[in-house]
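Example 3.2
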Amino acid sequence: MQQGAIKYGERNWLLGNNGDHTYLASCLRHIYAFCEGEYYDPDLGTPHLANAAWNLMAIIENNYKDYPFLSPQFNQEEFEKQYKDTPKKPNPRPKPEIPPPHDSNK
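Structure, written as tokens:
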């Protein structure tokens, strides 16, 4: 985000002046460039995929943050029942150990 702040202005994206189409167009440009074999954006020096993901998150933050995370019509209970017995692939990465919180009273 530092590169964007330099190019466009510090936290300018929070002004909400861009509609979905602006962010989607930028996202797609970055995805297409990546698909063409270009890993880094030559203008910003940052990875195209990171830039694409940032644009999608900006749409959600600016234009949809008041929407519930799940659709009100979505049946979570039915979803969990449907996939409860589905075989899962084992994750090859071990679950990270989270250190206990620091006790400042000691």
